Amino acid sequence: MSGLTMGVEEEFLLVDPGSGRAVPCAAAVLARAGREPCPPGAELHPELSATQVEATTGVCTDLAGLRDHLRAGRHRLAAAARAEGVLLISSGTPVVAAPPPPHSSGERFAEIVRRYAGVVDGYQTCGCHVHVGVPDAGTGVAVVNHLRPWLPTLLALSANSPFGGGRDTGYASWRILEQSSFPGAGTPPWFPSAAAYRREVDRLVECGTLVDSAMTFWLARPSPHLPTVEVRAADAAATADEALLQAALVRGLVRTALDDLAAGREAPRVGDPVCAAAVWSAARYGLGGPGVHPLEEHRVPAVRLVAELVDRVRPALEEAGDLAPASTLLAGALRRGTGADRQRRAAAGAGGSRAVLGMLAAQTLEGTGGHGPALAGYRIGAAANRPGGTGEER
């Protein structure tokens, strides 16, 4: 897959190991983590909420290198979080209810808070964003058109946010429901050109629904800063390997789209209402129920849509040498169930939300070699795990 680079942005929550509440200590965690060496091009960032942090990989050309970057980012942040007396967890939404946290500092964050008011009070959703390199903006827009039918299936496969406000919402991805409060969230429209895309974004800025042209809430877009397509359909990946699976599938979809464009095959114009229905169904059921077939426009088992996605990208995966590792990753994900399935299974046991927290902390570090240092000294649910702490939110 010559020329198709990729990178991943992962968002995480910082939680108190005693209460399970999100803790607004992102600035301290990022300052501590920033002292440690990182892979080339990898970075750490704040998010809107002071309870969240983000790790971005460098530009990678193969899955093995990307896996190393993903694991390194998680390990750095988890070690820094541990030193601050909190846990790093990868979940699309918090498990335990808490008062709305403060927002991170910065003028752009402040403008977002002013613009969207109550929508961002307590907003702490976390996603897994995959970037794949494309030649130019025009190609990026055309590729996104081809990705539109498959965004709900990527979401269903990644669903990892069943809890909202401390309760089981009945959804596999409550994150998507929270995001739907923002204007224009969901599947992007079909655009005939890069110019049409820019006009629409500029129009939304002029209408006041976007802060600036770098902001959209669509699940996929040409990146406003990088020569990439950015796919933002997935919930925060429970494990680094599940993030890697998303990257493999997204790169396969982009490569397949480029092949279609080279052959003169235009993307299907799936209707916006059907796309919205497919996104809702993926958020509601994950892989455990019906999905909406975007081309046939009726309900089918969600696992059938996963199989069709894999069939579509199989030649691209083979060309890149990704078919064997992607198949292994997918088999593991299907065997274990989605992150939402696993959170619910943990919650159903004797430990309740505390068991969910412990599982999430362990999964976040799975495969990084950081299980011991990150969890050493912690008794999940104990009242005073943090040095000098009481188990309550700072």
What does this structure look like?
- This protein has 394 residues and is of the alpha+beta class.
- The protein has one domain: Creatine Kinase, Chain A, domain 2, CATH 3.30.590.
- Helix content is 44%, strand content 13%.
- The protein contains 14 helices and eleven strands.
- Helix 8 crosses helix 10 and helix 8 packs across helix 11.
- The C terminus is likely disordered.
Residue ranges: pLDDT <50 for 5 or more in a row? 371-394
Mean pLDDT: 92
Regarding quaternary structure, what we see is: single chain
Question: Which CATH class?
Answer: Alpha Beta
How many helices? 14
Radius of gyration from CA coordinates: 20 Å
User: What is the fold named in CATH at topology level?
Assistant: Creatine Kinase, Chain A, domain 2
Report, as a whole number of angstroms, the end-to-end distance: 48 Å
Given helix and strand content, the structural type is alpha+beta
**Anisotropy-based shape:** globular
**How much of the sequence is in beta strands?**
5-15%
Question: For the report, how would you describe the main beta sheet?
Answer: 7 strands, antiparallel
Family: Belongs to the glutamate--cysteine ligase type 2 family. YbdK subfamily.
Organism: Actinomadura craniellae
GO molecular function: ATP binding; glutamate-cysteine ligase activity
Enzyme class: ligase
